[in-house]
């Protein structure tokens, strides 16, 4: 599940919230952030980027729900909903956090992870095409899965797996169409054959094109 017991410490920010103020926060070793949601007024805070990166790089990633302890303020359960990186050095610049009510359902997107090598790949020469890499679900915050596991070992050539084939539980509701394609084993030999045949089909047209100038040259000769 997408939870961690490790708390993130934050300090309240005050004064002007412009670029210079944000720069001063980063110089101090922290990054500016905003937390909002749950019917509470938004707050400008500063947090340690290392603790945020640890969450983003965890198994549950930005879907992780964690305790946010705000100095001189009320703590909250929170989730990272947006973040910005510096384009060149890749450092965190800013994050947006959302207060989470643990007793209310929420909608999030979680990754779909495939395991195993399909029979259609090993024995049939096909390739596995992973179509749906993320799926939107609705559940209580404590039930958010870090990912959806799907074993594709028994998938044969031209076989397909749809949302309806994913492991359904009573705690997690899939919001995607049940008929949506998640993965299938296809073959590329037919496509390669079509590509290889394309130039061959064009050759007669090239031959005809070369013959036209000869015919045009022969016409004046006949008049002579």
Named at the architecture level, the CATH assignment of the largest domain is: Beta Barrel
Major beta-sheet overview: 6 strands, mixed, barrel
Overall pLDDT score: 85
Per DSSP, the total helix count is: 4
Organism: Terriglobus roseus
Biased composition (Low complexity): 214-224
GO cellular component, one term: cytosolic large ribosomal subunit
Family: Belongs to the bacterial ribosomal protein bL25 family. CTC subfamily.
Question: Would you give an account of this structure?
Answer:
The protein is α+β, with helices and mostly antiparallel strands. The protein folds into two domains: 7-101, Ribosomal Protein L25, Chain P, CATH 2.40.240; 107-186, RNA Polymerase Alpha Subunit, Chain A, domain 2. Helix content is 25%, strand content 35%. It contains four helices and 13 strands. The chain has helices at residues 19-27, 49-56, 119-122, 189-223; strands at 8-12, 31-37, 40-47, 66-71, 76-85, 92-99, 106-115, 127-130, 134-139, 148-151, 160-162, 173-174, 181-186. The strands form three sheets. It has a six-stranded mixed beta barrel. Strands 10-7-9-12 form a four-stranded mixed beta sheet, with no helix packed on it. Strand 5 (76-85) and strand 6 form a beta hairpin. The longest helix is centred in the last third of the chain and has 35 residues, at 189-223. 21% of the residues are buried.
Notable characteristics:
single chain, 224 residues, alpha+beta, Ribosomal Protein L25, Chain P, RNA Polymerase Alpha Subunit, Chain A, domain 2, six-stranded mixed beta barrel, four-stranded mixed β-sheet, 13 strands, 35% strand, disordered C terminus, Rbsml_bL25/Gln-tRNA_synth_N, 5S rRNA binding, Ribosomal_bL25_C, Ribosomal_L25_dom
